[in-house]
């Protein structure tokens, strides 16, 4: 395995949802996602490679967002497949967390890159039996972008129509919490209130913005930069709301059943993840191009430079799950009226990640007291 540098968060440009159903919400209807294209020569199985634990394949989910850069690049460059040998990496792409959690619960995927809110709620809804968070991936890359002709300041957001990717996803929770902190009342389920929350697929949010059906959006990259390219203005970067400007936006989850039955496969994926993160930070320009190439393979369209470049600079990548911020995000969901106070003890199992990091001579990461006892 190539040498792995520090697991501390690094800026990409320089060197980088609420689940199933919330206990109080019905699941927003959504398909599981689409299969990613399988034409990447870097992902081909090496001659003589062996299956891990005799397993034919592992099913991996991620979003078509730059905040999922580890999964995008690890897929496109073949880092995961290299570690998995003859156990094939199969991929599915999702719009938001609730649908990915549904896929994890059904067995349609085994491992996923996903946001904190769906992780929290998938864990709590199953009474701690469905998933574990096994690693970190990214911080940052989320912005409130508005139509500057209609919204001049933060207080002007009141009374406007603001898009989020899906009912109960990580950005939805963040925006509802922020609105509550402004003293505004919003019904979480309907999105109606002092500000209107319009749940909109990231793929169509730019068109909704152009048509005037929304006044802005609280969204991850690259959607935020797409809106800016359409004349939108960044009114707020969510990183500015967090201590040290760091918060978990993407982590890695696994089905508990799959973790128990195939720990060697999970460890292989984590090795691939850590190697990918190292390569991204060592090769930022090449990594940016790789992520864009995978986005094109998945969606049929690459990002133009005016969208890709600013989006990439705003995202930090890290192996650390930033576990202390997960508790804060859970509190945000509670404050917004989306969730009853959860017991998150046992949501993390970082043993395999720390094994990978220790083998590379790197510092291990902390679960903030929320690990398996």
Helix-strand layout with pairing:
Blueprint: E1 10-11, E2 34-35, E3 57-63, H1 69-76, H2 79-84, E4 88-94, H3 97-106, E5 111-114, H4 116-125, E6 131-140, E7 142-146, E8 161-164, H5 170-181, E9 196-199, H6 205-211, E10 216-220, H7 223-229, E11 233-237, E12 248-255, H8 256-261, H9 263-282, H10 284-299, H11 305-313, E13 315-317, H12 323-335, H13 351-359
Parallel strand pairs: 3-4, 3-5, 8-9, 8-10
Antiparallel strand pairs: 1-13, 2-4, 5-12, 6-12, 6-13, 7-10, 7-11
Helix pairs in contact: 1-9, 1-10, 5-12, 7-11, 9-10, 9-13
Strand segment tally = 13
Which class of secondary structure composition applies to the elements? Answer: alpha/beta
Q: Which runs of at least 5 residues are low in confidence (pLDDT < 50)?
A: 1-42
**Judging from the principal axes of the Cα atoms, what is the shape?**
globular
* DSSP strand content: 15-25%
The portion of residues assigned to helices is 25-40%
Major β-sheet profile: 8 strands, mixed
Number of H/I helices: 13
End-to-end separation: 30 Å
In the sheet with the most strands, the strands line up as: 1-13-6-12-5-3-4-2
Q: Provide mean pLDDT, rounded.
A: 88
């Amino acid at each position: 395995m190539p040498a792995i540098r520090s697991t501390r968060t690094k800026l990409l440009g320089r060197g980088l949802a609420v689940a199933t159903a919330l206990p109080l919400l019905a699941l927003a209807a959504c398909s599981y996602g689409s299969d990613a294209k399988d034409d990447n020569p870097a992902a081909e199985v090496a001659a003589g490679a062996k299956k891990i634990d005799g397993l034919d394949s592992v099913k991996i989910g991620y979003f078509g967002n730059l905040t999922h850069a580890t999964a995008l690049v690890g897929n496109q460059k073949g880092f995961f497949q290299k570690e998995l040998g003859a156990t094939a990496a199969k991929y599915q792409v999702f719009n938001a967390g609730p649908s990915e959690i549904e896929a994890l619960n059904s067995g349609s995927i085994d491992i996923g890159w996903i946001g904190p809110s769906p992780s929290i709620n998938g864990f709590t809804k199953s009474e701690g039996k469905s998933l574990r968070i096994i690693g970190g991936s990214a911080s940052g890359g989320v912005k409130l972008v508005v139509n500057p002709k209609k919204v001049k300041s933060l207080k002007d957001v009141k009374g406007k129509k603001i898009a989020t990717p899906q009912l109960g996803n990580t950005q939805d929770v963040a925006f509802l919490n922020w609105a509550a902190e402004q003293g505004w009342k919003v019904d979480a389920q309907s999105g109606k209130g002092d500000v209107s929350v319009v749940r909109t697929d990231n793929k169509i949010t730019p068109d909704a913005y152009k048509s005037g059906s929304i006044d802005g959006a609280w969204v991850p990259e690259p959607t935020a930069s797409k809106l800016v390219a359409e004349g939108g203005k960044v009114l707020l970067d969510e990183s500015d709301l967090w201590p040290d400007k760091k918060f978990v936006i993407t982590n890695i989850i696994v089905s508990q059943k799959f973790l128990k039955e195939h720990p060697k496969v999970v460890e292989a994926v984590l090795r691939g993840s850590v190697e990918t993160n190292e390569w991204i930070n060592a090769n930022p320009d090449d990594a940016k191009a790789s992520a864009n190439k995978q986005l094109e393979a998945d969606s049929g369209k690459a990002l133009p430079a005016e969208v890709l470049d600013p989006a990439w600079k705003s995202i930090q990548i890290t192996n650390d799950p930033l576990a202390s911020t997960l508790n804060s995000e859970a509190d945000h969901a509670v404050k917004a009226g989306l969730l009853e106070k959860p017991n998150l003890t046992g949501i993390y199992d970082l043993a395999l990640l720390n094994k990978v990091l220790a083998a590379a001579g790197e510092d291990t990461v902390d679960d903030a007291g929320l690990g398996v006892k």
